[in-house]
Design brief:
Elements lengths: L2 H39 E6 L2 E2 L3 E3 L6 E2 L1 H12 L3 E6 L5 H6 L5 E6 L3 H4 L2 E3 L8 E6 L14 E5 L3 H7 L5 E5 L2 H9 L5 E5 H10 L3 E5 L11 E5 L4 H15 L1 H10 L1 H13 L4
Parallel strand pairs: 1-5, 1-6, 9-10, 9-11
Antiparallel strand pairs: 2-3, 3-4, 6-13, 7-13, 8-11, 8-12
Length: about 280
């Protein structure tokens, strides 16, 4: 090939390459703009589907269901955004939010001082009651009545601390509330101190058990809030929606759906009795 032809070919390739680069950049910008628009319409919610009735996976559909799931869906609807759930390990929730890979966490998360250093929290949307679970007919209505009894609870929790404050209770710490309730069923334990909403599920599944709710805790380390990125302007909007749901009864409907009318009524009575709402 002649030198002149090589020069023309090189020039032609250079022009073609430049056109492809410019065209590619244009396409990438369109994709980026599209992604930006899509992201703005999507609410990425991080959760942990191992905590029924707040979050769990429906065996039939394979989709997340629960109190927190319905709450997030309502918030997404009010914000005009489609909710996409990201199921992950509990310890990954806050880091995922910090990294920008999620827009909020709705997972029965407590607004502790430590977490508040890196994320912002909404107002409290749920005050989890504690409950004593035991065999039917035992009628353990208070921690005082558990003296001289062997009582199980989850290791390292505030529940364990509550039991240890009462002299005379033989406290047994286990890996989960499920194990504590199983030991009540098989007779190894006289009672278990567990999350009140869990207790409702346990007693539905095992009619031979009874439960007695204790007073609601107002300790923020035991309450549930929604986590958002640090100093997010969406905190105010989420708080408005939570207020709206409490006023229009929508949150109550969600609780009735998963806890039943009787237990929901008991919960709201406790809120009223303790001056929370």
């Amino acid at each position: 090939m002649k030198k002149g032809m090589l020069k023309k070919l090189a020039m032609g390739l250079a022009v073609l390459s430049a056109a492809m680069v410019l065209g590619g950049c244009g396409d990438q910008k369109k994709v980026a703009d599209t992604d930006k628009k899509t992201d703005a319409k999507v609410l990425r919610v991080a959760t942990n589907c191992t905590f029924p009735p707040f979050q769990t996976i429906d065996e039939k559909t394979g989709k997340p269901v629960g109190i927190d799931i319905d709450l997030a869906e309502y918030i997404g609807k009010k914000m005009g955004r489609k909710v996409e759930f990201q199921d992950m390990k509990f310890k990954a929730l806050v880091p995922t939010l910090e990294s920008g890979r999620a827009d909020m966490v709705v997972a029965g998360l407590s607004p502790t001082d430590e977490r508040s250093k890196v994320v912002s929290f909404s107002k409290i949307y749920y005050y989890p009651p504690k409950a004593i679970v035991a065999k039917k007919g035992t009628n353990y209505t208070s921690l005082e009545l558990l003296k001289k009894h062997k009582v199980g609870t989850t290791m390292g929790t505030t529940y364990a601390n509550d039991l240890k404050k009462v002299p005379g209770i033989d406290v047994v710490e286990l890996d989960s509330s499920l194990l504590a309730v199983q030991d009540v069923l098989n007779g190894r334990l006289d009672a278990a101190l567990v999350d009140g909403t869990h207790a409702i599920i346990f007693c539905k599944e095992h009619p031979e058990l009874e439960m007695h709710m204790l007073a609601l805790s107002t300790d923020k380390n035991e309450t549930f809030s929604i986590a958002l990125p640090k100093d997010s302007p969406d905190v105010a909007k989420v708080n408005e929606i939570i207020d709206e749901m409490n006023k229009n009864g929508e949150f109550r409907k969600i609780l009735v759906k998963y806890l039943g009318e009787e237990q929901t009524a008991n919960y709201y009575k406790m809120l009223k009795d303790q001056g929370i709402q």
